[in-house]
Specification:
Layout (H helix, E strand, L loop, with lengths): L1 H31 L4 H27 L4 E2 L4 E2 L3 H4 L6 H8 L6 E3 L10 H5 L9 H5 L3 E2 L11 E2 H4 L18 H18 L7 H7 L13 H10 L48 E7 L3 H11 L2 E8 L5 E6 L6 E14 L5 E6 L11 E5 L11 E6 L20
Parallel strand pairs: 4-6, 8-11
Antiparallel strand pairs: 1-2, 3-8, 5-9, 6-12, 7-9, 7-12, 9-10, 10-11
Length: 403
């Protein structure tokens, strides 16, 4: 918003100078030559151009806060709005008194002291560059695949402890990294029977401009590209939480991205040998059937969606946007699907806002209607055998899992 104001001031200064020049030029020409009616009208149109530019600029300055920008449909909000509390009794009441809402709202303790501006910082999904999306493989699955009416990765692969974990991203806009790393951790267990927790801190600190801006946000698909090309170390090697128990950079008022040190905190581990890779990055076709098949065959995926003010108040039920401004894009892990007692189809997702938010850290969102864009941005990758030292019985170590 500040950039728009600065640019607007420059434009207004420029057009003011241009109007003075045109006025003087017309006087000189009129004095030397007698202008026809047509010439005078042409001069009038030229003189009006700066005025039109000025009006357009003023419109941009005053109405920019209410305009939508980009695919995430986020709003530039006023300072008053940004400094107001994200949790509002009026929002919770509006949802709970609406018989058509289908979900319950509450004043979640996770955000009891958060302003709208602080909450927005958690929503770290940025738009993926078109050049990356255009070259991204899009996975589809045979329609003949029989899928269950409901599915939960936590029970389907109960031996995988990572699938059922709810983490906490702290005060950092690192959701894009969490969704990718958590999904890949789950897939290592599903495909290779390895219960390994991979490091969010590695990708957050070391992906750099490839992924975006660390705690200020990044792109989920770029995160998966990093996992394929550079790999990610274990949580034991590079933990997200520091020695005093608060998240990087949640203890810092500036939400600074942690530094990339490329060194395990445990001196007995080596950074490069701790790396785990994905085979390649891909997107999943937005058809719900393809998304379900991908999760059913290969495990949880990362999804991104637009977050509105009411989502902060979610407690239980099948979420649908009811009220409030769009605040930004958020990434989470999709672990299953089902149908509610009221007959409403839903996706089951794990958030990384701790267990004191939502339904013990989980939430459900309407399935099959692309609610908040949830079915438009599904990204994943398969685990690679590269750099893995283990005994293999039934699997050729030189072969990676396939679609």
């Amino acid at each position: 918003m500040n950039i728009i104001i600065y640019i607007s001031k420059i434009i207004i200064f420029y057009v003011s100078a241009l109007k003075i020049k045109l006025f003087l030029f017309e006087k000189i020409v009129n004095k030397k030559y007698k202008l026809s009616v047509l010439d005078s009208f042409s001069f009038y149109l030229i003189k009006m151009t700066p005025t039109i530019l000025s009006l357009a600029t003023l419109f941009l300055v005053f109405f920019a806060p209410y305009l939508r920008f980009g695919e995430a449909k986020t709003y530039e909000l006023s300072e008053v709005k940004l400094n107001s509390h994200i949790l509002q009794e009026s929002i919770a009441r509006q949802i709970n008194e609406n018989p058509e809402a289908g979900w319950e709202a509450t004043i979640n303790p996770r955000f009891s002291n958060f302003t709208v501006g602080q909450f927005k910082r958690l929503l770290g999904v940025k738009q993926t560059p078109r050049s990356e999306l255009s070259s991204a493989p899009v996975v589809t699955h045979p329609k003949s695949l029989k899928l269950p009416k409901d599915f939960d990765a936590r029970t389907a692969w109960s031996q995988c402890s990572t699938i059922g974990r709810i983490l906490d991203q702290g005060h950092c806009g690192s959701c894009w990294a969490f969704g990718a790393v958590e999904s890949l951790s789950d897939r290592f267990c599903i495909h290779f029977d390895m219960n390994v927790s991979l490091s969010v801190n590695d990708i957050l600190a070391c992906c750099g401009l490839l992924c975006g801006a660390g705690c200020a946000g990044g792109t989920p698909f770029s995160a998966w590209i990093y996992l394929a090309h550079h790999g990610v170390v274990t949580e034991e090697c590079d933990p997200y939480f520091d020695q005093i128990g608060c998240s990087h950079p949640g203890c810092e008022p500036t939400y600074r991205t942690p530094k990339c040190v490329k060194k395990c905190v445990n001196g007995n581990q080596l950074w490069e040998t701790s790396k785990h890779y994905s085979v390649k990055a891909y997107t999943v076709n937005s058809d719900p059937q393809d998304i379900m098949a991908e999760v059913y065959k290969n495990g949880p995926v990362e999804v991104a969606f637009t977050v509105y003010e009411d989502f902060a108040h979610y407690k239980s039920g099948v979420y649908k946007h009811i009220t409030g401004f769009a605040l930004g894009g958020h990434a989470v892990k999709l672990v299953g699907w089902g149908t509610s007692h009221e007959g409403e189809d839903y996706w089951l997702l794990a958030n990384q806002w701790n267990t004191n938010w939502g339904d013990d850290g989980y939430f459900k969102i309407k399935r099959g209607t692309n609610e908040c864009g949830i079915e438009n941005a599904v990204t994943a990758g398969l685990p690679s055998t590269k750099n893995i030292v283990r005994e293999v019985t039934d699997m050729d170590v030189d072969a990676d899992v396939s679609f």
